[in-house]
Amino acid sequence: MESTVSQAPQADVQPNVIAEVRGGIGWLTLNRPQALNALSLEMIRAMSHALLAWQHDPEVHAVILRGEGGKALCAGGDIRFFHRAATAGDPQLVTFFTEEYRLNHLIFRYAKPYIALMDGVVMGGGMGISQGASLRVVTERTKMAMPETNIGLFPDVGGGWFLARVPGSVGEYLGVTGQVIQAADALSVGLADCHVPAETLASVVQRLRDGNWTSADQVAACFTGVATEADAARAVIVPHRESIDACFSQGTVKAILAALAASPDADWAAQTAAHMAKRSPLMMAVTLELIRRGRHTTLADELRRELDMMTHVFAEGDGVEGIRALAVDKDHSPKWKHASIDSVRDDEVAAFFVSPWRREAHPLLGLSD
Fold it and tell me: Does 156 participate in catalysis according to the annotation?
């Protein structure tokens, strides 16, 4: 049986989110391949609508999230919209993040098995809709990252919570640097659950779409039953794990850079420092503090904190300038508020963690753990 449950309102024939129940499975297909399935507000609403409808539907035993186009599950949020809304003072910007974070929370706390096919690019907002999955499937094409410091933002969508829960200081490393990782690294630090080659994955998806499934265990077994070892040749975490923990356990970004300069793992350290030199100094410092605080918070409180922080990022942070340089003017020469980490003050970092709302008036007040 196939029925369309939810569609984002679009003028064209194909919606940007195709939500359907087929063979006992709720299928969520992100269908904006020309933008690497980047999330718009309409897409967030369509996903939320479908998931809420399926949560208590006895015909839906599991949900599968996938991306159309073969290149990405989801490359993140629609950053060009962020830039337009921020420069115009459009309140839809806060609406976007409020509804996105509600969706992230819904996925992390979803009542039924939710399977994310993390094939291709999975970054930023794409991590927010996949890290809460009960089964996270990666392929040899997976390129995973929380790259926000590159555009003057911070790893949101619960990033301060899930990065805080990977082993050692890997969360700080991934959040501060925005380093892209592939399947083997993702599996090694618990950001993925199984590796299925892309060609095999396509066959499994077709089998699931052609069949009729009566339990979530049957559905999950179709993926875990064909899982293989991931290629470790391009791993960046596993071979440098000791160095990552030694450097990124330091108390400040300045201390991290000093540890990198003194690291015996010289080539890796030099590459990492060069990577960080391109990031927003202010947002690297904010991100480090975010992840450290995230170790001692609930997911709901984390998402409320991140919404607070987003109001500051576009008002007095580097968000508008970072997106301008990367995605609008594309000159790749952002003029950050600080030329180096040396001039970032502690009080500037602390200001990002001050909520503009009274607790009882917070837009995400209703989230629970």
Answer: yes
Q: Active site residue: 78, 148, 306, 318, which one?
A: 148
CA–CA dist 213, 64 (Å, integer): 13
At 309-348, the pLDDT tens digits run 999 999 888 999 999 999 999 999 999 999 999 999 999 9
Q: Is 77 a catalytic residue?
A: yes
Which of the residues 20, 119, 140, 156 is marked catalytic?
A: 156
Q: What angle do CA 143, 97, 160 make, to 5 degrees?
A: 55
User: Catalytic one among 26, 77, 126, 160?
Assistant: 77
- pLDDT tens-digit readout, 111-144: 999 999 999 999 999 999 999 999 999 999 999 9
Strand order, beta sheet including 62-67: 2-7, 17-22, 25-30, 62-67, 114-118, 135-138, 194-195
148 counts as catalytic: yes
The C-alpha atoms of residue 257 and residue 276 are separated, in whole angstroms, by 9
Any catalytic annotation for residue 70?
no
In 10 A of CB 179, how many CB atoms? 21
Quick check: 174 and 146 in contact, CB under 8 A? yes
Of 23, 26, 125, 160, catalytic:
125
